[in-house]
Design goal:
metal ion binding, 10 helices, IPNS-like_sf, single chain, 12 strands, DIOX_N, iron, globular, Jelly Rolls, four-stranded antiparallel β-sheet, Oxoglu/Fe-dep_dioxygenase_dom, alpha+beta
């Protein structure tokens, strides 16, 4: 581990979840506030997500990504009106990048019975695997990390002097997406190709779990002008701030530039749960009515070219086509 990596903030949030005194909660709030102000991310312990569930989740990823490509393509994101399902390696390119990302991914959200809001809400596509070998452990993990994302939003809101009760209007029907990822080994990655190219997350809070012992996530340290690896440690989540959260905080909280470069000699897995907020919710750091900009506005602004949102979605959130 590098000297810089050793300085990355590590926060035990158990004092907020199960406090023995008001000081316990205040200490966690201060630590997370300072981590997001200084680095834009932190490593999280004391979260309450069982290690056994984390291991079961990674085992489920291995089962899914080991399926023949033809079977995975049966649930391609291109077959879903909600763009949920499988995306093959090389399918995702970033603006201005010569090579597409090497990652494979499987994406899903809350499983709603019908398509609403032009695909913002709707059903998931599930792979042809036994319930107890994929959907059950994955869904349990999703619920646990979604609850963690909501709790962290509450802490960050409290960190800037707002009441945690603000979450009531911010989380009525929140956007919570989960991306399961497989990164090929370096030997199966083209020269100059990244597992995931350099980017900032667009929205709120990202809850990432890396496969233990397989470092790949790199954070850009602006002051030092260098990329530094984030340790991949079992039972330790990496929490980072997206552009929406950063902007709404007046950039008090930093949105961190990051990328993925698989350093292990074998394939590698990770899981990302992204907690953004209700599509009609406005800035939780401001009084209601201060701003009309919503989560939905920012979502469409960021992904309008990529997702080509429907007129129904644009009309619902108040954006002109």
């Amino acid at each position: 581990m590098s000297e810089k990596a050793a300085q990355f903030p590590l926060v035990d949030i158990s004092g907020y979840i199960n406090p023995t005194s008001p000081e316990d909660k205040a200490q966690v709030v201060a630590q997370i506030r300072d981590a997001f102000k200084t680095f834009g991310f932190f490593q999280c312990t004391g979260h309450g997500v069982p290690v056994s569930l984390q291991r079961a989740m990674f085992k489920s990823l291995e089962r899914f990504f080991s399926l023949p490509k033809e079977e995975k393509m049966e649930i391609s994101v291109l077959k879903s009106p909600c763009r949920r399902g499988y995306e093959a390696s090389g399918a995702h390119s970033r603006d201005g990048k010569a090579m597409p990302d090497a990652k494979e991914s499987y994406y899903f959200c809350e499983d709603d019975p019908k398509v609403e809001m032009g695909g913002i809400y709707g059903p998931n596509q599930w792979p042809p695997l036994p319930e107890d070998e994929f959907r059950q452990p994955i869904w349990e993990y999703y619920k646990k990390t979604a609850a963690m994302g909501k709790l962290l939003w509450e802490i960050l809101i409290e960190g800037l002097g707002r009441s945690p009760s603000t979450m009531e209007r911010f989380s009525k029907r929140p956007l919570i997406g989960m991306n399961l990822l497989r990164y090929p080994s370096p030997a199966d990655t083209a020269e100059g190709q990244f597992g995931l190219g350099a980017h900032n997350d667009w929205g709120g809070i990202t809850v990432l779990l890396q496969e233990p012992g397989k470092e790949a996530l790199e954070i850009w340290l602006e002051d030092e002008k260098e990329w530094v690896s984030v340790p991949a440690v079992e039972d330790r989540f990496v929490i980072n701030c997206g552009d929406m959260l950063s902007g709404w905080s007046g950039h008090t909280y930093k949105s961190v530039h990051h990328r993925v470069v698989n350093k292990a000699p074998v394939e590698r897995y990770s899981a990302v749960t992204a907690w953004h907020g209700d599509i009609f919710a406005t800035n939780p750091f401001e009084e209601p009515g201060t701003s009309k900009e919503t989560v939905g506005h920012l979502f469409v602004k960021r992904f309008q070219k990529q997702l080509k949102p429907s007129k129904a979605l644009l009309a619902a959130i108040g954006v002109e086509a």
